[in-house]
Amino acid sequence: MALSRDTLHLLLLTNTQNDAESLVSLIRNSGSATRAQSITSLASFAEMIQEKNWDIVVAEPSACGITYEELLNQIQRLNKDLPLILIPRDSDPMQLETALQRGAAAVVPFDESNIIMLTIQRELNNLMCRRDLRILQVRLRETEKRCRNLLESSKDAIAYVYDGMHVYANTAYLDLFGYDSVEELEGMPIMDMVAGNEQKTFKSFLKNYQTDPLNNSELHTIGVDPNGLEFPMGMSFSAAMYADEMCTQVVIQQEEKHEVLEAEIDELRIRDIMTGLYNKPHFADSLASVIDRAVMLNESSALLYINVDGFGRVKRDIGIQHSDDVVCAVADCLKEHITDDDIVARIGEDVFGWLTPISNPEAAQKLAQELCDAIAERLIEVDSRTVQVTTSIGITLINSNSPNPEDALQQAHVAADAVRQQAGHEHGNGVSLFLLRDEVSPAGPPQLEQQLASALRANQLRLLFQPLINLRGEDLEHYEALLRLPTNSGEDISAGEFLNTSHISDELKRKIDRWVIIHTTKLLAEHHRKGHKTRVFINISAASLRDDTLANWIVVAMKAAGLASGSVIFQFNEDDAGQHLAQAKRFAYGVRRHGMMTAISRFGCALVPMQTLEHIDVDYVKVDGSFTQELAQNPAAQKHLKTLLADIHSAGKISIVPLVESAASVSSIWQMGVHFIQGYYVQGPQAGMMYDFSDEASTAE
């Protein structure tokens, strides 16, 4: 289970430091970078929550002589939105009730680690929603100010109407109907703006608009000014706020007699030229409208994501030009099943989207299966050849709980990818309904382990290399080797997603680590033979740290590759080192005595980070990427990072700052005396060691 943000800022009140470190490890293992600090006194707690924004407080009641009531009083006194989760060692229903009444977010027994994690997840999500709401309220106020300015300068005639009466009109509206001021219009019915013979139609329209505002928002009618002069006009209605009251915004445009031509142009604008189906922009607008209706009117529907299987292979077999014929044939097949209520579009080269008012999951799956079968059975004649293709169709239901349009489409995409994880559908040709757990983990633990083992046997794992730039100048080139697992969807899974999970066996993790070492050293040796002086960081998992035979095996592998001992730097992360201190210490000593170097990554998030360096002798220290990400967001982050780097340099270690994405970050980091930077500002991970280090000096400047 992964937490919903990259860095969790956590305050801990526990009886012992070991308890605090166990909690930090528990949260880190859930997939979140965690910045934690222990509460040592009530005064320090008040100081800490005033200095920066923390996310959650996890506390044992009355630990270190501090009661949870005192913590709550400080939080409330300083008016902080800071959830407090209590973790008592003894369960007491009365204490639970009292704590919740006094403002605690939750009470979870100390030994219920899984429930603690679920509670932290829930409270963090709730906190993010409250913070987002406050930001949105500020943006709403700013938007309202801009809207008022735009209203006055707009050339369109715009008015706000409440209960059929005008409450506001801009200058263009006043000019259109021949009034001198808003005061003349206040309280006047909008019905008076419509010609007498059109008022009955106008009343009927307003009634329909109130019942179904999303589908009845535009009207073409005849307007009339105070002198009785009539003119054609188009009226657009939408919900709005004016003076903190809900009302209706009316936008009026004078019309000319070009409706037929404009309608034809509009139709061409929303069609995909090649297939005749709707195009992607129109589909996106339609999807947004469908989701709006689901939220506002509780109308349910279904979204189908139809992906042609193996389209890249089809293009190779019959050529790019003829592959368009295949796409058109699939589109023709879809057209045979379209009803008047469906919206079908081509939204990618080989992807179609289908919106249907069907709300029942079984009925949606039945429709998708019919489409899947029809396409699979279609014989497509292409250049004197007969071609058959299949599709993978993902379904997501749209209702009042649906996310934004982009996320809904992504859910359907995830479901389409999940087809290939079904038994007998490894190459697609099937239907899958999106479930929320699919988004969290598209491939469950058993499937992922099988996928990894299969990729390892078939030598299908991928290695990427990302350069590190020395800001102090050095002849040696430095890269980090990064492991990726290719998937059928074309999107790689990073090593952290499977090597840091308990669902994959230690034996498989160790095999993967050794595969990485063998292939990296082989590529590095070839790179050296081309005249490059290069070092590569290779990551070691916790499972390999616990393998006492690894250090000696590495020595043999290095000799087999013909590499000097200083060519490779073996890297493990701070959390693994903290949990397996003795094993990490033995490993570091085992490779160092053969002249090889070591590094510790994701550093600085432990309760006492420098304590780890007192036990394990490493050469390089890479700080946690969350420090870099916060540089532009939190003024205190720069001070925190500067202090941490000063401690690292005082310990005689070489520092690395990752996730450097901008020139502004480089400027800040340069002043802190950092040795190396790494990130997309320098270069993203590439398939080979191909960075031009001759630009290193200019990058550092």
Structure description:
With 701 residues, the protein is α/β, with parallel strands linked by helices. It is built from 27 helices and 26 strands. The strands form 5 sheets. It has an 8-stranded mixed beta barrel. Strand 3, helix 3 and strand 4 form a beta-alpha-beta unit. Helix 16 runs parallel beside helix 18, helix 18 (506-529) runs parallel beside helix 20 (550-561) and helix 20 runs parallel beside helix 22 (581-592). It is globular and about 100 Å long.
Features:
single chain, 701 residues, alpha/beta, eight-stranded mixed β-barrel, five-stranded parallel β-sheet, 27 helices, 26 strands, globular, disordered N terminus, disordered C terminus
Give the SSE map.
Layout: E1 7-13, H1 17-29, E2 33-38, H2 42-51, E3 56-59, H3 68-77, E4 84-86, H4 93-102, E5 106-107, H5 113-153, E6 157-162, E7 165-169, H6 171-177, H7 182-185, H8 199-211, E8 218-224, E9 230-242, E10 245-254, H9 259-269, H10 280-297, E11 301-308, H11 311-318, H12 320-335, E12 343-346, E13 351-356, H13 361-377, E14 380-382, E15 385-387, E16 391-398, H14 405-418, E17 430-433, H15 436-440, H16 445-457, E18 462-470, E19 477-485, E20 493-494, H17 496-499, H18 506-529, E21 534-539, H19 542-545, H20 550-561, E22 568-573, H21 574-579, H22 581-592, E23 597-603, H23 609-615, E24 620-623, H24 625-629, H25 635-650, E25 654-657, H26 663-670, E26 676-678, H27 696-700
Parallel strand pairs: 1-2, 1-3, 3-4, 4-5, 16-17, 19-21, 21-22, 22-23, 23-24, 24-25, 25-26
Antiparallel strand pairs: 6-7, 6-10, 8-9, 9-10, 11-13, 11-16, 12-13, 14-15, 18-19, 18-26, 19-20
